[in-house]
């Protein structure tokens, strides 16, 4: 809501500077987004009297005006000729600046005639869109005086963000009430009285078929209007308030609406069949061409204003084109009504139309102020357009006023400020909410425009606003619990810390996927969006990998070639019956391991990813991790595995299929993993237990086994550890060798073994026995040959 | 061997040994000379072994001489070793040097996302005030996201233009705030409740410099006997001090959210200029939180007695805090995964 301070000043005296007023309003629940000075860009324009208008010697469509600019006479070339000698006009001399013109004006020649500045149209002054004429001032003024001040262009406007529950603040009057409450100034109601219309007009009927959706409908007939411009001051105010001035009839209804908050609609009476008004639901398939020249298909839930034949307006939202007032209109039917807010909201939402009227109706207008608003508009129509009120029909009645009880002790307890009953009453009184003390509390009578106040807490807030939240002290509750993370929450943090500490950057991505990315992991059925924002978010990601791939793609494009990223976030997939939301952790490694000398010169590969998984699993203290079968797309079929914990699959690790890397413009191998966080964290161990550390020296043996290259090293390692039993303190695979002199299809795995027990030094025969046992186990299980001992 | 021969041998061994030791030019040569002069096969050791063949009367004298020669040789070895080591140490600066300004072998760089570290800082500040962490699903029902939070059935936030709805049976949506976890927590737990609720939320916004369809929110919920707006203000003031420094002030003013009444907006004094007013804050205050006293309708919806208990809630957007803290000009940068950005702002855990 844009509130011009000059307009506000008609309702309440404002002694504060705009900045101070804005601050005060913000602290009272009328947040001021910004202070606008719409005519800030205007300077140097003065009032001039036209002395003479003559033809331009070199151009038919131009003329030359000689004006008295106060101290001297000047000549300007003008493109229109509506001004005549004696008229007062705004004159912008060289050096003046105008809102719509970039640079200050200069003296220049136009077709051979020197033009010293220009005469201004309403558009050039930023008053309206009218560019067809020079603005001719209505009021007397001295030539040479400041035109901006004369016209009222010094206006300062407060742009207020009206809170969603405050219907009453969508008007100058509503804001004035609050300003009066917070400054203690009196509220004035200029030019507003309820009786402008007189007795019922003959021959106009009003029938409300759905009183639930339209509790009140007041139709006023105004006859004999003449189209024309509104007074300049009104145009300036409408512009300042953010509405475009059009012509007097339309402007009058808008002006009254902005002032009082009641939307008004003017029908051309001659175009209403009957003439009569019927307020009813739309019939099936009914159509209406609205003011914006769009044909709207109406639904049965939509309330319409109809005449005797057809719908002529969508109630509370927009009027129809057929019955719209035009410059030929003589007689008007002026509608001032109350529509049920939710119905208006549904219709405006369905039609995708939010108008000045609908945004007021869907919050709720003051049912008692309908007649005042109609009277105000009628008076303006009389003043601006020469119309004459010719009676009205008022159907329905405002509901009785609500009362709401408030206990002073409850208000004190919730606000944390001690308030007596009389303080509570006074606080409400300042907000024009009359309250009386009764046994057990205070009963407040809620003004009809305060549709937001329905229960005790609402009144507590009003009391708080009235005394000022600034009085609220700062205290701390006595919390009788220890704060902290749950063990599971701690482990999830640890997961991120482990990966960050291992040299990966954490990323965040949007969990949305375009159509082509949705089937990224074939086994996971994606969830599509019912109302996507764009093609990029047709559905929800089933995997974190596409997000990481896109991030990697962007980084590589920016020449960050060594990319190590991870993300922890929820992923989504369709389940039966319910969709499944699963938190996952994924990492992606691609490009060189390090770039700066003396780093190792190699590319990331699958073993970096498996190593990282082991690092994470170990770091969480989870045991029983294994690598299982090849997981399928999008993984590389020869370089990937399902990750298991205690035999249960919890995710995948490996390199992504080269086709995938190519699709994301990643030049080399892309190593990655993706695990479900839940089972990973659930597998995390308790606090680790101490095991004896031997003080005796180990007995060391290096052994190598030759076996089929297809035997997984992991199986060999596991079997070796098992066969080594409690004597084998440590067994490290330190070399893998394939090729001559080994036969094709064979490879050698060399292990460095340390045998040691906590309580004594092992003897050579004991160790030899155990090495033999290991060799036998590996021969039996894998056909492995011991090469060296 | 007689005593004269023995003395001669010892004399020669001593002379040769000392010469070899003193002329050893490296620690390796010294070690060889030491073995030659003092080892099991050295001349002195030979004399020592043949002591038994010497006359009993001469034996003590020769024995003493053997020991003396051993000692002299050992002393010479020790002295020469000290000298050689000193020489070697003096040389090490020349013989074993490297340009230490070459790039060091760093572990690969990495770190937490600035939104993670900011979120943790916010959460930890509340934990230190005695709060626990409560979490909930991102795929929510309309009941938890709107109905139970006192949003009227026709509230604009429910519009398909504001809220993202998955195309699945049932009334699911992507939660638009973390507030549904308030309801879930109040259903699951009896007061007193003091929880901080972090989480990812969604709105149907087209990304631009200040809007995203995805954002991180954190809120707190306190439900106990006798809680007031003053407790809320004091709590958020304590939080702001833990977060931004000991001189922080907060101010509250009326605001509206369906799930609180009285509702409040909350500004913290600008942590960039200390509240004097700067380009970022304008008037010394930074608008940071939406807050208020828990609306009694929420208590009614979760079976908590609104006459016995009261509560407050407050929420804020993590992106905004991170943008202010780090001076990030465009909110989209948080979601682009650009390592140049992450490495500027990430802090390791």
Describe the structure.
The complex is a heterodimer of chains A (789) and B (349). Chain A has 789 residues and is of the alpha+beta class. Chain A is built from 19 helices and 37 strands. Chain A is elongated. Chain A starts with a strand and ends with a strand. With 349 residues, chain B is α+β, with helices and mostly antiparallel strands. Chain B is 41% helix and 18% strand. Chain B has 11 helices and 9 strands. Chain B has helices spanning 3-23, 27-38, 43-49, 59-95, 114-128, 142-145, 180-188, 229-244, 296-302, 318-326, 339-345; strands spanning 132-133, 139-141, 172-174, 193-202, 214-224, 250-254, 260-269, 285-294, 310-317. In chain B, α2 (27-38) packs antiparallel against α4 (59-95) and α3 (43-49) runs antiparallel to α4. The longest helix of chain B is centred in the first third of the chain and has 37 residues, at 59-95. The model of chain B has no long low-confidence stretch (mean pLDDT 91). The chains are: A alpha+beta (789), B alpha+beta (349).
């Amino acid at each position: 809501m844009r509130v011009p301070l000059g307009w506000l000043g008609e309702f309440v005296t404002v002694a504060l500077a705009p900045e101070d007023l804005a601050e005060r309003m913000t602290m009272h629940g009328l947040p001021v987004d910004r202070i606008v000075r719409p005519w800030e860009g205007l300077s140097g324009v003065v009032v001039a009297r036209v002395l003479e208008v003559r033809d331009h010697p070199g151009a038919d469509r131009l003329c030359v005006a000689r004006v008295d600019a106060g101290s001297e006479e000047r000549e300007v070339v003008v493109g229109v000729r509506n001004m005549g000698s004696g008229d007062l006009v705004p004159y912008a001399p060289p050096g003046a600046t105008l809102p719509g013109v970039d640079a200050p004006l200069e003296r220049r020649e136009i077709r051979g005639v020197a033009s010293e500045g220009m005469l201004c149209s309403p558009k050039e002054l930023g008053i309206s869109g009218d560019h067809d004429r020079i603005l001719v001032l209505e009021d007397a003024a001295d030539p040479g005086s400041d035109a901006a001040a004369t016209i009222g262009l010094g206006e300062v406007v407060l742009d207020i963000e009206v809170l969603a529950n405050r219907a009453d603040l969508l008007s100058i009057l509503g804001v004035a009430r609050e300003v009066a409450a917070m400054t203690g100034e009196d509220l004035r109601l200029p030019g507003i009285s309820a009786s402008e219309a007189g007795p019922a007009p003959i021959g106009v009927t009003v029938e409300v078929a759905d009183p639930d959706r339209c509790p009140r409908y007041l139709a006023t007939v105004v006859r004999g209007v003449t189209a024309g411009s509104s007074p300049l001051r009104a145009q300036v105010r409408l512009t300042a308030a953010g509405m475009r001035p059009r012509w007097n009839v339309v402007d009058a209804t808008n002006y009254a609406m902005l002032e009082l908050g009641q939307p008004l609609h003017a029908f051309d009476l001659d175009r209403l069949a009957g003439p009569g008004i019927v307020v009813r639901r739309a019939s099936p398939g009914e159509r209406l061409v609205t003011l914006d020249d769009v044909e709207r298909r109406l639904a049965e839930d939509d309330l319409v204003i109809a005449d005797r034949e057809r719908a002529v307006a969508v109630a509370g939202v927009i009027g129809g084109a057929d019955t719209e007032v035009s410059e030929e209109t003589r007689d008007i039917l002026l509608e001032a009504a109350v529509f049920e807010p939710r119905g208006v909201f549904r219709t405006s939402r369905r039609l995708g139309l939010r108008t000045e009227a609908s945004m007021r109706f869907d919050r709720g207008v003051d049912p008692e102020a309908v007649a005042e608003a109609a009277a105000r508009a009628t008076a303006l129509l009389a003043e601006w357009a020469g119309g004459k009120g010719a009676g009205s029909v008022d159907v329905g009645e405002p509901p009785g006023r609500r009362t709401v009880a408030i206990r002073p002790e409850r208000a004190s307890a919730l606000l944390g400020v001690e308030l007596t009953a009389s303080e509570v009453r006074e606080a409400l009184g300042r907000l024009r909410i009359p309250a009386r003390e009764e046994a057990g509390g205070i009963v407040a009578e809620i003004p009809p425009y305060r549709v937001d106040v329905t229960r005790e807490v609402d009144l507590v807030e009003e009391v708080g606003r009235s005394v000022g939240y600034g009085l609220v002290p700062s205290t701390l509750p006595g919390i009788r619990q220890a704060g902290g993370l749950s063990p599971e929450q701690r482990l999830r943090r640890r997961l991120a810390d482990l990966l960050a500490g291992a040299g990966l950057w954490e990323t965040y991505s949007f969990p949305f996927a375009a159509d082509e990315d949705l089937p990224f992991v074939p086994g996971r059925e994606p969830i599509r969006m019912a109302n996507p924002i764009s093609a990029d978010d047709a559905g929800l990601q089933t995997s974190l990998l596409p997000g990481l791939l896109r991030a990697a793609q962007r980084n590589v494009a920016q020449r960050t070639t060594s990319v190590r990223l991870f993300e922890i976030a929820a992923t989504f997939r369709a389940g039966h019956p319910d969709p499944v939301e699963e938190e996952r952790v994924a990492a992606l490694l691609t490009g060189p391991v390090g770039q700066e000398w003396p780093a190792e010169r190699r590319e990331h590969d699958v073993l970096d990813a498996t190593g990282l998984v082991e690092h994470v699993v170990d770091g969480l203290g989870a045991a029983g991790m294994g690598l299982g079968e090849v997981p399928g797309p999008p993984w590389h079929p020869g370089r990937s595995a399902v990750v298991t914990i205690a035999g249960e699959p919890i995710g995948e690790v490996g390199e992504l299929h080269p086709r995938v890397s190519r699709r994301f413009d990643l030049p080399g191998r892309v190593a990655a993993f993706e695990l479900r966080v839940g089972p990973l964290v659930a597998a995390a161990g308790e606090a680790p237990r101490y095991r004896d550390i031997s003080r005796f020296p180990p007995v060391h043996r290096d052994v190598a086994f030759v076996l089929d290259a297809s035997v997984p090293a992991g199986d060999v390692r596991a079997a070796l550890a098992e066969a080594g039993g409690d004597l084998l303190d440590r067994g490290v695979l330190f070399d893998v060798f394939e090729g001559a002199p080994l036969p094709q299809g064979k490879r050698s795995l060399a292990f460095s073994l340390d045998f040691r027990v906590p309580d004594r030094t092992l003897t050579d025969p004991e160790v030899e026995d155990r090495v033999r046992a290991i060799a036998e186990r590996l021969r039996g299980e894998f056909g492995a040959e011991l090469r060296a001992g | 061997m007689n005593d004269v021969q023995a003395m001669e041998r010892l004399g020669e061994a001593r002379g040769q040994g000392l010469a070899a030791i003193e002329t050893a030019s490296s620690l390796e040569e010294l070690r060889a000379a030491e073995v030659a002069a003092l080892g099991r096969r050295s001349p002195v050791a030979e004399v020592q072994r043949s002591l038994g063949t010497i006359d009993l009367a001469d034996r003590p004298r020769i024995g003493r001489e053997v020991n003396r020669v051993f000692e002299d040789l050992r002393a010479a070895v020790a002295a020469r070793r000290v000298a050689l080591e000193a020489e070697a140490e003096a040389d090490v600066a020349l013989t074993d040097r490297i340009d230490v300004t070459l790039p060091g072998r760093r572990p690969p760089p990495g770190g937490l996302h600035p939104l993670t570290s900011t979120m943790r800082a916010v959460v930890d500040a509340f934990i230190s005030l005695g709060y626990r962490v409560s979490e909930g699903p991102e795929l929510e029902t309309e009941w938890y996201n709107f109905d139970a939070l006192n949003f009227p059935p026709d509230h604009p936030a429910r519009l398909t233009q504001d809220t993202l709805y998955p195309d699945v049976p049932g009334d699911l949506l992507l939660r638009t705030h973390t507030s549904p976890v308030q309801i879930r927590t109040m259903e699951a737990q009896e007061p007193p409740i003091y929880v901080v609720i972090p989480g990812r939320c969604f709105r149907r916004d087209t990304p631009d410099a200040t809007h995203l369809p995805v954002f991180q929110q954190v809120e707190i919920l306190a439900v106990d006997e006798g809680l007031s707006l003053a407790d809320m203000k004091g709590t958020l003031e304590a939080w702001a001090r833990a977060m931004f420094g000991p001189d922080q002030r907060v101010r509250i003013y009326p605001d509206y959210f369906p799930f609180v009444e009285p509702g409040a907006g909350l500004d913290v004094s600008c942590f960039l200029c200390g509240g004097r007013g700067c380009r970022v804050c304008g008037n010394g205050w930074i608008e940071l939180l939406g807050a208020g006293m828990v609306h009694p309708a929420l208590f009614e919806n979760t079976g908590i007695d609104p006459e016995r208990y009261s509560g407050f809630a407050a929420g804020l957007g993590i992106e905004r805090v991170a943008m202010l803290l780090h001076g990030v000009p465009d909110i989209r940068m948080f979601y682009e995964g650009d390592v140049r950005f992450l490495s500027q702002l990430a802090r390791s855990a």
